[in-house]
Design brief:
single chain, alpha+beta, nine-stranded antiparallel beta sheet, 49 strands
Length: 1457
């Protein structure tokens, strides 16, 4: 159960007590007359001496013992001319045997003859006419025989007068009766809750409560021993627990060099349970009771339509439940029982397994309930007092209701050796006797290089088998949902319960037409959501699935094992394959490989991997030290490079299954971190408020209806279903779905629809640099060598003119390899893209020395053949130390390919690192202006590497080199020069950033590059740009250990002057820039400065003053994004490689990559351009604006119908069934049309759409339009009643509710009051859709939304036709401008068209408005729409909004874009 659901449900419970009280009062009160309480209908008519007359009322069927006694005016032609025998069913037959089986004139309890008297005929009676004539009835007042037992005397008198008009004498007697069956006065069972018909509901509830109470007592008794026992947390070992596991295999494993036991998660607790017969029976009764409730509701609903009449359950009634009065009361009681039953089921569903299972020790459990404390959603600070209050209340409610933990049931499984384990969140937990709990296990290979190499003999079969049982098979296991389970999860939500119960009311109360439509819409939308979810899950499952075989060294022998049986510590052979991916994480220990990691990192170029060195046995295995030796699950091995022709490339497996890099990627997708959004926070308030408002409207509806009893409850529930539309959740998602489809057409894939809405409020865009702002590759610019006087020379770009030492360094000091090349070196260059670009500039080629097999690949296997344009000799790389982020440089040891000449050591890396390295060796060759020159290059956007060299003493052999440490090789290094590259901006970067900045978004850079380069790129792309106050001053913060303070002290430097700036001066400059009396100031910090400022608590204060974050590690990027998320909606944009963590952590991440790693990002773009960010922001703002327009439209739909309903209830009128179908039916296409709006053309607006459901803009928009509509509604009623005087068409034709059966609500439409208010309300709903379809700063003009205009035109045209046209078949279908044939003829209208009703329930027999009034009403409706559009366009979107913002400005985050 979600937190939002718990908050809504708990708040709603505050209303339950009042609700139940009202239900009890209504269900226990007999029905009363509906009568306006402020006036009496037709009082003016009576006061003027006129008589209110009801026209064209059908007489009851006349029943006689002999058809010869039928009055001439009543006898049908068929009976009058019958020459055979008239049968009891009114037909003329030669033989009445079959026809008499269905007599028309039959009343089991006798005939009503008035004054409470009944007559039971002694002879069979025959109908005179199955379609009796109609009469005009003065002083018509129908008294319900159900309540009083009295006949309708005015109608009888008029009918009798017609019967006696031609000299016939008709008297009510034993042989001549009107077909009005006597119904006994209501018995006690229809007026109190002890009636037998209520016993069904009581029995179901009582039996189930008794069973559940019995099970609860039984469960408490059986689990009494666990009552005071603390729960065991997953993986927590008791104090003092040491030694081995219980089994011999565990003893063997514990003695190995590998380590066991993953760090326990304190947020996870395991509780053991077993299936219990009593609990199983109790859970079965819950399922059975749920089914029985649904069946009972279905029976009650079908009984309303007398579906079971053919079965003859009752002799005296066609209904099982006797009559509609009793049936409705039973339905109301059952409906409430069912509602609260399913609410309890939804609330109790997450803990159902533990609730009906029996608690046992984990050692004997058959299944385990994993209780995991849910993380708090990532929330913004300063979202308002209301949101803060909601959040605090929510925390208390979550703790009180237990919703702060998730409950997951997992079965206990057993291995072939009897070891018990569970699978939870893709990880295996094995039962440990010491901890008396299930413990996660991982096997650490290492931890040093020497330890890894010592495991090259492989595992024994027993070791591998036991490791397999501890860590599980090499597979990423998670329970994939089937269609049925996904469907159950989708439709078991709280709002679906509300939708279902409201639809049951619609089905019951003769509104099944629209109930079927809404049911179809809700079911289809739910199924679509399920299919989208399953498709997304399948994509993850496909990514997580792999198969294949691997050669593994077991018991000293190579064997072929399936990939699932590989375990950490295994030695495997690495082979090249373009079809199959590597299924494990591993570290090379012999040979080398070329890998394609593009699916994981997004890096298009293959990378070269070399074995970890065995000459540094004490080096610790870390992600940094093993990066160039690590193989990752999911990568393709393109080529292997063995150390000898007869030796394989070997690797030791470090992780399998969910512990691999790919497994962690899948877990990140399956179990994301929740994010809070102000829209969601307000929704937690809006839902209960709408329920409360609906409750108040229910009371108002009952008061305005002027009646009581069951029918009042149904009318009130219809009001609630209008206030809180069942379509509300579906419509709010439609805008996101439409935006997602449009983004997909632009190459932007979305995996989380909710993030689209979130992006609509984005304030901060955080960009990686390389590959995001700039092109993916670097262009080689040249070198700047140091001259003999230790001074920098000029920059040279022609390779042949480079000093020889630099030519050799550029040719050999790299990690480039040749993929698929022959000895001639014609293969594809692979490796780091910087090294490839540098090597291409040399014109040299790479070959493999086949004679040198037997030495490590990082030594003498690569020959560099120089370009023909140079006279350089071929060089051989003897030894290589790969580049790792921890050291920030690489080293290569080279010699002439012939083995003669000195051996030279080259070092290449970041200019700061090489400077420190050379300085530590004596500073040989370092120019005095080294820092100034390198910083100048960086500030000019030049990617700068430094090169140093050392020539080893004569006589040094290759064997000596192989035995020397890296430090010894590098000692005495001399600076050689700089290697320069230019990283060009993408062609559209500046334009895209201009669009985002103009949209009010703050742009920052988060890069691993040098701070100077970052500042240059920021200036070049416009991220740092001038204003009216001048060009900004960039102040760089870094940690300089030689600054006279501790290593954690941040030193600030002005990039223009190069001077140091203290903290006080930085604050002064910032303050001056903010207030406008100084140049603006932008800060740039390095990763070390960022962490130092964070530790000192100052980073948050400087966060929105800092533009460039440089030299940031992947972890630093995540932390930087999270800091911004505390203040504003933050979007991270990168390439999906080393910034995958930041992409996942952000409110929204967009990866400019199609790699699998980009799946952790919420968006991924095939178009690797920043225009994707602009497109995303446009669609997101449009989607958010559309969602709010749809939200306001549905709220307004409910409010219009609620207030119109109050007016109609006052007059005891309603709209016809087809009018309701038109109104509710057009709501769906109008809502859909609203979502089809395109983003506003042109540049993005600087403002953002509101996300506050209870914000002033949203409330003002709804209230303003509601006020306009209420004003026009009142005016329309006043305009109608202006015709209530003599000569007016309403005079003596007011509808009198006392003459109507309110249960037959569709008959309350045949009058002028229901007609006028119904038409106007329909126009108002259409007008509301038009008002909120207007273009805004974020949506295109409504004139561009042709789909909406088409729907609007069709609906408006239908309403116009209904309003202005005279009587016709179409208008009669809607009971508008229609009447009986006689009434239409009296008005001069034709009556020979199809669909003319035989009975009209209005007094006049019609509700045809005069032509002049129709036009007045139509013009009034058009004016209503026009005023609403103007109020929205001018008052909310126009100057009214601007004036309100100036008058009541909100406290907002102040920042520079």
């Amino acid at each position: 159960m979600t937190t939002t659901m718990v908050t809504m449900m708990t708040t709603t419970n505050l209303i339950v007590a009042l609700w139940l009280l009202l239900v009890g009062v209504l269900a226990g009160i007999p029905s009363a007359e509906a009568n306006p309480f402020l006036s009496t209908p037709n009082d003016k008519c009576s006061a003027s001496g006129s008589v209110p007359t009801r026209f064209a009322v059908a007489c009851p069927i006349t029943c006689v013992s002999d058809v010869k006694n039928c009055p001439k005016a009543f006898v049908s032609t068929a009976i009058a001319t019958c020459t055979q025998t008239v049968c009891l069913d009114g037909s003329c037959q030669a033989d009445c045997t079959a026809a008499n089986q269905n007599p028309v004139c039959t009343c089991s309890r006798g005939y009503n003859v008035g004054d409470g008297q009944t007559v039971t005929p002694t002879r069979p009676l025959y109908p005179c006419n199955l379609n009796p004539p109609t009469v005009n009835v003065p002083q018509y007042l129908q008294e319900s025989p159900v309540d009083t037992g009295n006949a309708n005397k005015p109608l009888w008198n008029a009918c009798t007068a017609l019967a006696n008009a031609n000299g016939t004498t008709f008297l009510v007697s034993q042989t001549s009766l009107y077909l009005e069956c006597a119904i006994p006065p209501p018995s006690d069972r229809t007026t109190h809750f002890a009636a037998p018909e209520f016993l069904i509901a009581y029995a179901i509830v009582g039996v189930e409560i008794i069973l559940l109470l019995f099970h609860s007592l039984y469960k408490r008794t059986r689990e009494s021993s666990f009552r005071d026992r603390p729960s065991n947390s997953g993986g927590v070992l008791p104090r003092g627990a040491a030694g081995s596991f219980k089994s011999p295999a565990d003893v063997e494993l514990a003695d190995m060099s590998s380590s066991f036991g993953a760090a326990p998660d304190p947020n996870i607790t395991f509780l053991g349970y077993r299936l219990d017969p009593i609990g199983t029976a109790a859970s079965t009764t819950v399922i059975a009771t749920s089914i029985i409730w649904i069946i009972l509701l279905a029976i009650l609903t079908l009984d309303y339509y007398a579906v079971f009449a053919q079965f003859g359950f009752r002799e005296e009634s066609d209904m099982i439940f006797y009559d509609h009065s009793l049936l409705s009361k039973v339905f109301i009681v059952v409906w409430h029982f069912v509602t609260f039953w399913f609410l309890w089921v939804v609330f109790a569903q997450p803990g159902a397994d533990s609730r009906f299972g029996r608690r046992v020790p984990l050692a004997s459990a058959s299944f385990v309930v994993a209780r995991k404390r849910l993380p708090d959603p990532v929330a913004l600070a300063n979202q308002g007092a209301m949101v803060d209050w909601v959040r605090r209340t929510e925390v208390r409610l979550r703790k009180y209701t237990g919703a702060d933990v998730s409950l997951t049931t997992v079965p206990v499984l057993t291995t072939s050796n009897g070891r018990r384990y569970i699978e939870f969140e893709c990880a295996r937990y094995v039962y440990d006797d010491r901890a008396a709990s299930f413990v996660p296990h991982s096997i650490t290979v290492g931890p040093t290089f020497g330890d890894v190499h010592r495991q090259r003999s492989g595992l024994r079969s027993g070791e591998a088998r036991d490791r397999l049982e501890l860590v599980g098979p090499n597979a990423i296991v998670f329970p994939a949902d089937t269609f049925i389970t996904a469907l159950f999860k989708e439709f078991s939500g709280l709002f679906y319960v509300y939708q279902m119960m409201m639809l049951w009311i619609w089905f019951y109360y003769a509104y099944y037409y629209m109930a079927l439509v809404l049911t179809a819409v809700i079911v289809v939308s739910g199924v679509i959501k399920v299919l989208v979810f399953l498709r997304s899950q399948k994509r993850v499952l496909d990514m997580a699935s792999f198969s294949g075989s691997t050669r593994v060294l077991r018991d000293g022998t190579w064997s072929l094992e399936t990939s699932e049986n590989v375990v950490p510590g295994d030695i495997i052979q690495v082979t090249a394959s373009s079809e199959h991916v590597l299924t494990v994480d591993a570290v090379l220990i012999e040979g080398g490989a070329v890998c394609d990691e593009s699916s994981l990192t997004g890096e298009a170029l293959p990378v070269v991997k070399a074995a970890i060195r065995d000459d540094t046995p004490d080096a610790v295995c870390t992600p940094g030290t093993t990066k160039n030796s690590a193989l990752f699950a999911g990568c393709h091995i393109l080529e292997v490079q063995p150390t000898a022709s007869d030796r394989p490339v070997l690797a030791v497996v470090t992780a399998t299954g969910a512990q691999t890099s790919k497994g962690r990627l899948v877990k990140d997708i399956l179990f994301p971190t929740p994010v809070s959004f102000v829209f969601i926070e307000h929704l937690k308030i809006v839902f209960p408020l709408l329920v409360l408002w609906g409750f108040l409207m229910l009371l108002a509806s009952i008061a305005m209806l002027g009646t009581s009893g069951a029918d009042a409850w149904f009318y009130g529930m219809f009001t609630i279903s209008q206030v809180l539309s069942p379509l509300l959740p579906a419509v709010l998602v439609i805008g996101q779905s439409v935006a997602s489809e449009r983004l997909a057409k632009q190459g932007i894939l979305c995996v989380d629809l909710d993030r689209i809405t979130l992006c609509g409020k984005a304030k901060v865009f955080c960009f990686d640099k390389t590959g995001t702002l700039t092109k993916e590759g670097l262009d080689f610019m040249g070198v700047q060598a140091v001259e003999s006087n230790d001074q920098f020379g000029s920059v040279q770009s022609i390779f042949a003119s480079f000093p020889p030492i630099l030519r050799s360094a550029l040719s050999t000091c790299h990690s480039v390899a040749s993929l698929g090349g022959s000895s001639g070196g014609a293969g594809r260059l692979v490796g780091n893209f910087v090294d490839i670009e540098m090597f291409r500039a040399t014109g040299a080629s790479l070959t493999l020395s086949n004679s040198d097999y037997g030495t490590p690949i990082s030594a003498a296997t690569t020959i560099v053949t120089p370009a023909p344009a140079t006279a350089d000799r071929p060089l051989r790389i003897i030894r290589r130390f790969e580049f790792v982020h921890g050291s920030a440089y690489m080293t290569a040891v080279v010699q002439d390919a012939g083995g003669s000449g000195p051996i030279t050591v080259f070092m290449k890396g970041g200019f700061e690192k090489i400077r420190d390295l050379v300085a530590a060796s004596g500073g040989f060759g370092l120019p005095p202006n080294y820092d100034a020159v390198t910083n100048a290059h960086a500030n000019a956007g030049v990617y700068t590497l430094a090169i140093a060299s050392r020539v080893l003493p004569n006589g040094t052999t290759v064997a000596d080199v192989m035995g020397m440490s890296r430090a010894a090789l590098e000692a005495g290094a001399q600076f050689a020069g700089l290697c320069l590259f230019r990283n060009e901006l993408k062609h559209d970067t500046a334009d895209a950033l201009d669009d985002l900045r103009d949209a009010g978004c703050r742009l920052i850079m988060c890069t691993g590059d040098a701070v100077g380069t970052g500042v240059y790129i920021a200036r070049a792309c416009g991220m740092v740009r001038g204003s009216q106050a001048g060009e900004p001053v960039v102040v760089v913060g870094d940690v300089e250990s030689g600054a006279g303070g501790p290593a954690t002290a941040v030193v600030w430097r002005n990039t223009e002057t190069g001077e140091s700036v203290n903290d006080t001066e930085v604050e002064r400059l910032l303050e001056a820039g903010r207030k406008g009396y100084g140049r603006p100031v932008e800060l740039a910090v390095t990763g070390r400065a960022f962490n130092a400022l964070l530790a000192s608590g100052r980073m948050r204060g400087l966060l929105f003053e800092t533009r460039v974050f440089a030299r940031m590690s992947p972890e630093d990027k995540v932390q930087c994004v999270r800091l911004h998320m505390e203040k504003a909606i933050t979007v991270m944009c990168g390439d999906g490689g080393n910034d995958a963590g930041a992409l996942k952590a952000a409110h929204a991440g967009i990866a400019l990559s199609e790699a699998e790693s980009s799946v952790v990002s919420h968006f991924s773009s095939r178009n690797r351009s920043l225009s994707s960010c602009v497109a995303l922001l446009k669609e997101a703002r449009c989607s958010l604006d559309i969602s709010f327009a749809s939200y306001k439209f549905l709220i307004m739909y409910g409010e219009i119908l609620t207030f119109v309903g109050l007016v109609q209830y006052y007059f005891t009128v309603n709209m016809g069934q087809w009018m309701w179908i038109l109104i509710d039916g057009c709501t769906i296409p109008l809502s859909w049309g609203l979502t089809q709006a395109q983003p506003a053309p042109g540049r993005l607006s600087r403002s953002r759409p509101t996300a506050r459901l209870l914000g002033p803009e949203t409330i003002a928009s709804v209230c303003l339009l509601l006020a306009v509509d209420l004003g026009f509604l009142i005016f329309a009623v006043a305009m109608l009643y202006a015709n209530n005087g003599p000569g007016g068409f309403l005079f003596c034709n007011e509808f009198d509710g006392r003459t109507a059966d309110v249960r037959r609500w569709w008959e309350l439409a045949d009058n002028f009051e229901g007609e006028v208010t119904g038409l106007l309300s329909a126009f108002q709903i259409v007008g509301a859709a038009l008002a909120w379809s207007l273009g805004s700063p974020h949506r295109a003009s409504v004139l561009r939304n042709w789909r909406f205009l088409l729907v609007f035109a069709v609906v408006f045209g239908i309403l116009t036709l209904l309003t202005l046209a005279g009587p016709n078949s179409f208008s009669c279908l809607f009971r508008i401008n229609c009447g009986t044939a006689a009434a239409l003829q009296s008005l001069g209208y034709p009556s020979d068209f199809p669909g003319v009703p035989s009975v009209y329930h209005g007094f006049a027999g019609h509700n045809v408005m005069p032509v002049s009034f129709r036009f007045k009403l139509w013009f009034l409706a058009c004016a209503n729409i026009g005023f609403g559009v103007v109020a929205q366009g001018v008052g909310v979107l126009g100057w009214g909004r601007a004036w309100a913002k100036r008058t009541w400005p909100l406290k907002r985050l102040v920042y520079r874009t």
